[in-house]
Design brief:
By secondary structure, the chain is α/β, with parallel strands linked by helices. The protein has nine helices and 35 strands. Bound molecules: heme C. Heme C binds next to helix 7, helix 8 and helix 9. This is Cytochrome c domain-containing protein.
């Protein structure tokens, strides 16, 4: 949820007032060596990183990516212009490959089976097009494991282009996504997934939104003309590399949204990306929190721990190239007692940065003034950050990095990926946990506890539906437009009555 960016900067005003300037910004710990990069290298026995495949790597991503996507071992089902993709999914079984030929498909496809390969067939430059006409909500939803979605052009949907709902081992590649109303590619609550070679533009929130996931690789995508380019949120062990992220409002965002069921963002590597000219005026739905995201931010880390930023080319972002901040400086965030609010152990290694910070927002200007910083600034830190470091600190103009030591390591290259050597097992969900799983896997993509995301906060829904889970379940199946300043909620009719009711009961009991 890109919305947070907004918030960040109201807190800066405080600093500008002259607060703590001496102790906070006057320091210089650059002589202190911080971090030895051990989280990126394996012990001799290969034991390090047992849960994240980082041990003793080398070679190419492709060598490690065999654990994601469908097996393709079953039958082939063909779908041609005028036929239904959903009908093909209904007749498919695990291992099958659904080949969709060029044509225009106006439908929502829901894949609730495992090991399905949904492949567009591109012939002479003609693609299969999924067309939402600004009437349909989502293009492709999957809850199965080991799903491949590739070679589609997906456009003009009101909700998401591809949304994962607790599916593991996903592979989403080589799709074109244009003009969707919520998110573009949005795996939620998935483990072990690769998102590569997609091109996304004109997305009203985040183009690629990795939410509450583990072991994710996002590479070689182009994202532009969207409000947020790539977001890694409440996720662990992610690599974002070799993407071209340009002309968004904000480029790459790594953070914790408070009030979501999974509380941490840890170990994100952001490397070798082009993060350029992310100055597009905000065009999020009017009145929504994302509408306040200030344009001109290259990379933002808010409360994410162990984020390493390496080898990126970051230029032309008018607000700042990199902003590191915390929840306290985010004025309209309610702190989550279970989420640690600082950005700790951030490592800024060598990046190529130039021409950032030409027109910072007033709050950054004020911070510069208060710290007697002149000239344009590439990197801004606001708030307390423990154990963070920057390599060769003198190479960039910065403000607020007095607490950062000098990094004791120079690269993450030995960690090729965090994709798993073997597919992650399917999520087994006990009946008693059905409501929790449905809420985590689906509803939490748009509803946080006390913060406005795409939909209203859970607290508001609790107040409206106190003793009435049936009412929530009914609304989720057939939502009607209620609020002028929110988008419509996409219907969740594909979920059984039982699951909707379980999710509703879980929602009513949430406390943070
Ligand atoms: C893609 C985003 C999205 C997802 C996923 C989503 N919602 Fe919503 N929800 C919204 C939006 C947007 C609104 C506000 C709609 C409006 O006011 O017109 C909303 C509103 C609601 C409301 C308020 C209804 C009222 O009377 O004011 C309830 C209840 C609700 N959602 C329940 C759920 C449940 C339960 C789930 C999961 C099964 C869910 N939502 C999944 C976006 C979403």
């Amino acid at each position: 949820m890109a919305g947070k960016l907004v918030a960040i900067l109201s807190g800066l005003a405080l600093l500008a007032a002259g607060y703590f300037i001496g102790s906070k910004f006057g320091g210089d710990r650059s002589h202190v060596i911080v971090g030895d990069g051990s989280r990126y290298s394996a012990g001799a026995d290969g034991s390090a990183g047992a849960d994240n495949n980082s041990a003793a790597q080398g070679g190419r991503l492709a060598d490690y990516a065999r654990s994601v996507g469908a097996s393709g071992k079953g039958n082939t089902i063909e779908v041609r212009d005028g036929e239904s993709i959903q009908a093909a999914v209904a007749s498919a079984s695990a291992g099958d490959v659904i080949r969709v030929f060029p044509g225009t498909y106006r439908e929502t496809v829901y894949i609730d089976k495992d090991d399905i390969q949904l492949s567009g067939v591109i012939i002479g430059g003609e693609w299969p097009v999924m067309e939402g006409d600004k009437k349909l909500n989502d293009a492709i939803l999957y809850s199965g494991n080991s799903i491949t979605v590739e070679n589609f052009r997906i456009q003009h949907y009101k909700g998401n282009a591809v949304m994962g709902q607790a599916g593991n081992n996903f592979l989403i590649r080589n799709n074109h996504v244009i003009d969707t109303g919520v998110y573009g590619i949005f795996p939620q609550l998935g483990k072990n997934g690769l998102i590569s070679h997609n091109v996304l533009s004109e997305i009203e929130d985040a183009a690629i939104y990795v939410g509450m996931c583990d072991n994710i690789h996002v590479s070689h995508n182009e994202v532009f003309n969207s409000v947020a380019g790539i977001e890694i949120e409440n996720s662990r062990h992610s690599i974002v590399e070799s993407n071209y992220v340009h002309n968004n409002t904000g480029g790459i965002l790594v953070f914790i949204t408070p009030g979501l069921p999974i509380k941490t963002t840890v170990d994100t590597i952001v490397r070798n990306n082009f993060v350029v000219n992310n100055n597009t005026a905000n065009f999020a739905a009017e009145g929504s929190i994302v509408a306040g995201v200030p344009a001109g931010t290259g990379i933002l880390n808010m409360a994410g721990d162990e984020t390493t930023i390496e080898g990126n080319i970051i230029s032309g972002n008018k607000n700042a190239g990199i902003i590191i901040t915390d929840h306290m400086n985010a004025g309209n965030i309610t702190l989550d007692p279970e989420s640690e609010p600082n950005s700790d152990k951030v490592a800024i290694l060598d990046n190529f940065m130039f021409d950032n910070g030409a027109e910072p927002i007033p709050e950054i200007k004020a911070l510069k003034l208060a710290t007697l910083t002149t000239g344009n600034v590439d990197i801004v830190n606001v708030g307390k950050s423990t154990g963070s470091c920057i390599l060769n600190p003198k190479q960039y103009p910065t403000v607020g990095l007095g607490d950062f030591g000098t990094c004791g390591f120079t690269t993450t290259a030995q960690t090729v990926t965090y994709l798993l050597p073997e597919p992650a097992p399917k999520r087994e969900i006990a009946k008693a946990d059905m409501g929790k799983a449905a809420f985590h896997g689906i509803c939490a993509g748009c509803h946080a506890y006390n913060v406005r995301m795409i939909g209203p906060p859970v607290q508001i829904i609790q107040a409206l539906y106190m003793d009435n889970p049936e009412g929530i379940a009914a609304y989720a199946a057939n939502p009607v437009k209620k609020r002028d300043d929110y988008p419509e909620m996409p219907p969740q009719k594909h979920l059984s009555e039982e699951i909707r009711l379980a999710a509703a009961k879980y929602l009513l009991e949430l406390k943070n």
